[in-house]
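User: Could you walk me through two proteins back to back? I'd like the raw sequence and the structure tokens for each, with a short line separating them so I can tell where one ends and the next begins.

Assistant: Of course. Protein one, sequence then structure:
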Amino acid sequence: MPIPARSFHPILTAPADTRLTGAAGGSRSAPAGTRFRVMLFEFLSVFAVAGQTLLKLVPVTIALGVVFAMLTRWSACNPGRPWWRKNEIVTDVCYWFLIPLGARFVRIGLMVMGAALIFDIHGADALIKFYDNGFGPLAQMPLWAQALTFLIVSDFLLYWFHRWYHGAHLWKYHAVHHSSQEVDWISAARFHPVNILFGTVLVDVALLLAGISPNVMLWVGPFTTASSAFVHANLNWTLGPFKYVMAGPVFHRWHHTHADRGGSSNFAGTFPIWDILFGTFYMPENELPDAYGIDDAHFPQGFGHQIIYPFTQ
């Protein structure tokens, strides 16, 4: 999930008298007691930010769960148990809360590193000023235009990252996402950290370093969260003529079938135009996808085991 605007690392928004970074006006030769207090503040701030992130996810999760439970009751793509009774619900819940949390901190860290290495921006105040409203030509566009640019460009780049992960060398990481045999809205966050880092996180950071304002995340974040849950939902919605414009549940559920069916198609996350342009669009008439998962009898079910498994292959 994209980070909300200005949700930088806590030290960047700490009071000026607690910062010790040279560029922010502090002193690296501060007394040991002061350094310890700042280190303790940093340590506790990480937990505070993590707690805030998880608390924000809880109402979103409840709302999505209720909405899709009701919709599935009337428009299920595949018959079966409700999402909260699926076999790997505990595993999916772990991914749903932990992966966005980890991605947030990694994204912020890469933004700080990128600003330092590429633009020689150092210190808390300088970083906040640098990122606050974006920079360069892209930041001169209206915020809605920046958000639209972010969505289109990121979706195009992620289309190719997605195809890359279906290759022989990286499939072991992406197989985590395809391992669910009961695909539903909460399956949306089931991604290996490597897949998230060299994919969504990298693209997000690149676009923000290109000058787009982080304020677009106030719009893009909720949209991508809802859209990702929607395309994974157990719904028989093809979207009719709009299936060529926006990705829907049936479009993406075909992608979760085996490779000899639709598993080698429909790589776009939001805009199917990329699949249409590059010959990977697959939406057979009067047919619904009905079998999901991967061909690996040894693939583990638990969250921790799935994180480790690709490194053993």
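----
Protein two, same layout:
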Amino acid sequence: MKKFYSSFDAFALRTITYTTARVWGFLYFYDWINPDPRRQPKIDFYCYAGIAGGILGGVLANPFQVVFNRMQVDEMYPARSRRNYKGFVDGFTRCAEEGALMRGAGAHGLKFAGLVSVGSGTYDYIKENMFYFFGPISMNRIVGTAAGCAAAVAASMPFDAIATRMHTMRPLPNGKMPYGSSFDCFTKIWQYEGSFNHQSNFGCFYSGGQAYFLRLYVIAMASQYMLDYYHHSSKVSEFWQPARFHFQSGLDYDIHNPYTDGFNQIMVHNWAAKQVMPALHPFAADGESQIGIV
């Protein structure tokens, strides 16, 4: 049983680092790209923010990932070829001496760019459409998370395979490294393992995809329920269902038509304009200012 928890210190530090970096990066760039206070999700904005935040988080977390990957696979090597890191600090120091801390950083950044940009947008799109048709049911979260994780696996796993090989490679008998760069690693994998001429296919980049999907799904589901517990609610609006805010009137409304938003406009027009701020209504009394509703 102990083998399943080997290199736990490296795992904890790597998880804290890349989770903080990618989430902070995504939220920072999303706030910069979409300053709309109503926070209406736009899938293209999700992609832009996810790519920028993912690359930033992946590059910053790469040194921790290098140490973690090496500690994970060390026992697969013959005894004479093992690195035998005593712990994270020892592994980090020796990687720094080797000059390998930023090895594969480009592929690692693209991995998180694909994961965050595609996964977040797919999850939110599925969740909102299911909410529109079925209401606030628990299945919205389950299905939306599964769809987001599947999309994240499809977009990020090829880069994860490249980054893992870059992190764990060892010198060949001639003293040279198997791969000179992340792009060189991609071309060699495709040429020797993914070419149809060698009775192979693009699936070589998705080896272990089932475990990768399950890991993402468990982390995503656990994170959402932990947030529910943290906010003392079983249905946190910003993670559970669409939450809208009409900033001119101060009206919060959770009814969302993902196709036209027509009902939202009617509700704000009839309720806010007539009762809360009559001057907003197009049929306001003469002499009153009329302000258009966005």
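The CA atoms of residues 6 and 72 lie 7 Å apart.

Let me know if you want the two compared in more detail.
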